[in-house]
Design a protein that fits this description.
This protein is mostly beta strands. The protein has strands spanning 2-7, 10-13, 18-26, 30-39, 46-51, 57-59, 67-71, 76-81, 90-100, 104-109, 113-118. Helices cover 0% and strands 61% of the residues.
């Protein structure tokens, strides 16, 4: 089985920064696209950022120039979040498109890490 575990959330001051991590563990062959989503209370989960296997990145307009997605080309995904605003608060989830022998390509999700922004 494959697991994704996020960490790095917590209480951050408005205007502050934090780095979120997402570690993929278990038996897998390859990772393709990896993404970060977030969900604020009472709102739908929304796309934040994506990194493809070639390293190309895509961002939601609301976080462009403030957030940076990166990976270590092994099993860890990062999201550097900066210049935080109150509207950035929520649970941040990572996902990864992973190839496993048998199931083939599937998208797996982590359980999320909470980011709270204090004013």
């Amino acid at each position: 089985q494959v697991q994704l575990v996020e960490s790095g959330g917590g209480l951050v001051q408005s205007g502050g920064s934090a780095r979120l991590s997402c570690v993929v563990s278990g038996a897998f062959v390859s990772i393709r696209t990896q993404e970060w989503f977030r969900q604020a209370p009472g709102k739908q989960r929304e796309f934040v950022a994506r990194i493809a296997r070639d390293g190309s990145t895509t961002y939601a307009d609301s976080v462009k120039d403030r957030f940076t997605i990166s990976g270590d080309n092994k099993n860890t995904l990062y999201l550097q979040i900066s210049s935080l605003k109150p509207e950035d608060a929520g649970v941040y989830y990572c996902n990864a498109d992973i190839f496993r022998n048998g199931p083939g390509w599937q998208v797996y999700w982590g359980q999320g890490t909470q980011v709270t922004v204090s004013s």
